[in-house]
User: Which sequence fits this backbone?
DNA sequence: CATGAATGAGCGTTCATTCAT
DNA sequence: GATGAATGAACGCTCATTCAT
């Protein structure tokens, strides 16, 4: 029944894309991505119809990866502050461990390669993180503020924290703390 | 080569670049930018040695433009809270009025077209805004937090606020308020 | 390689090729032809060594098909005019019923995919039609004209007649008549 | 005022296209055509937006060239038979002198690269030839036959004559005669 | 200096053919 | 033998940059 399509190859291509885009931006040639994935030029196109499709799927994949990392081990039945804390530190750790993924995500986000629908899907995926982090606001001073705005600010502060942890890794732990605390003050 | 004569042409090119990049991303062809600026293809290169030079200068220019707008009318001798307020609303108004400029700035920021030195210069230019907005922290709960981190968070919250004002213009004023207040709570 | 088993598949591929070429020209991908024939990409190459082989064999096949249709029911012992008439109308009917085949034949004929030898074979196959139609000339005004030239003209007029019948099907019968009569006038 | 577009280059590209297509079919690479025209790959596209545009314009150009050659020196005030004769021999001579052009025209005609509108324009251009050659029919046995059909037959016989003259150049003159005479018999 | 045609390396994508399953 | 993924050369077209006018 011929060689079946290989999930390994598919993810090898995605991983290669992350590396290539991190190095060369979104203009990284498909041929380079393929080569780096250990695959022929043409094979990339049996897994992704077009470069832009690869980009869109990569975007979703990276968002999912990030959310999975952030929510790992976070139990629904644990007390809220504990869940908060675990999720936040998971999230920050992910950013520290995979700075490439984060940079690529950022590039994709502002580029015009990602279709609006894909962008929407990405935000929906982020819901799992932001819902929890934003949940505190229902009783706090931002209780009148629209959810989406709270989510945006949470995300923004998280990003700033990540940037700072990465630029000053020696004090990463402290900055991580400072980030949550700033958020706490804002919302409760 | 020497110094090209017309400052008009120079800024026409920059303005055209903003429009073109907003529409087509950083891959907007130089020929298109030139055409939109009402200038010959080749002329672009007498004003900017290369496309990447144009991008780097545009980046600085936009940062300057933003800072100038934000600090307009902010007197050193006015009381701090008043200066705070004026600067914040100036800044937000700029974002509302020139969404293209902001989008282009965002694209340039994450792209790999901007040299590290240029990036540094951009941050330094931002100093005028962030210094003032961050000044509150010296007596507040973030007094131990490094300045740069505070600045990053301030910037992040500002960006989130802008996004939200743009996506829900009807309530722009309210969101603008919510933004500052969130910041205040965080810092004092 | 050896002899592939199924004659069905072989002709399914040829039929699919006709449809695909009619739609997309000679650049119709082998993969598409195979798919349309309900056969795997690779299988096409067990029935035909290469795309050009398929084309050459298709050319011969179509010529044979056309000649078979034209000569169907034409008895050697019938009087000449009767044979003439039957053959001509058979031929025209074939063109009307299988316009795709005719278009494909035309494309193959002028393309450089068909080897000279194959072309020669095609003309030889046509002999059965042209011999009969041209037989009239031996006593007529073209008696000095080389056979091949007469054949060429007969063929050309036939093609023109077909084109016209197809483009104005309502009067197909009339045009069909007009075609033979023009030929008659020319040759006797 | 920069280099102006050169008509010479434009026709060099068209001439190169004729040679390349004659040798390699319509798949002749644009890069090859450009090279043979003594021009850079990209330059082809400043003269023709796309390969298909080149093909369409080439088709019209070749038709025009053919018609111009055929009608050269044919005076409206000369007696009809004389005009007939001159036009026919001009036409045949063109085919003998530029067999490449004719082959390319034939390939373009049946390919699906030529837009219907272009095809229509080509036929209209042919009008100058066919109108005259077909004019005889108004009083002859084909007087009831639609003009377009007569034109198609005239064209078909002409093509057959050309083919034969080319394949047996030694007797070109005789075949040329045979062609007109066949036509005459058919129409008057 | 302004202009815009010229240049050619480079890229995304296709597709005939091969070959692992 | 059948299947269809794998391969990579090839192609049409783009575009930053140069340079003749």
Assistant:
């Amino acid at each position: 029944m011929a060689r079946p399509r290989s999930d390994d190859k598919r993810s090898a291509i995605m991983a290669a894309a992350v590396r290539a885009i991190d190095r060369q931006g979104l203009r990284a040639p498909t041929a380079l991505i393929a080569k780096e994935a250990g695959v022929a030029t043409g094979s990339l196109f049996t897994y992704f119809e077009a470069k832009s499709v690869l980009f869109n799927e990569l975007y979703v994949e990276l968002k999912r990866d990030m959310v999975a990392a952030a929510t790992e081990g976070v139990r629904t039945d644990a007390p809220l502050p504990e869940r908060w804390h675990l999720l936040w530190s998971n999230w920050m750790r992910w950013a520290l461990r995979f700075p490439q993924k984060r940079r690529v995500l950022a590039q994709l986000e502002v580029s015009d390669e990602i279709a609006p629908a894909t962008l929407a899907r990405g935000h929906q995926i982020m819901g799992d993180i932001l819902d929890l982090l934003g949940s505190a606001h229902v009783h706090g001073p931002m209780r009148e503020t629209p959810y989406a705005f709270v989510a945006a600010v949470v995300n923004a502060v998280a990003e700033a924290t990540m940037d700072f942890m990465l630029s000053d890794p020696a004090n990463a732990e402290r900055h991580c703390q400072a980030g949550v605390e700033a958020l706490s003050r804002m919302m409760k």
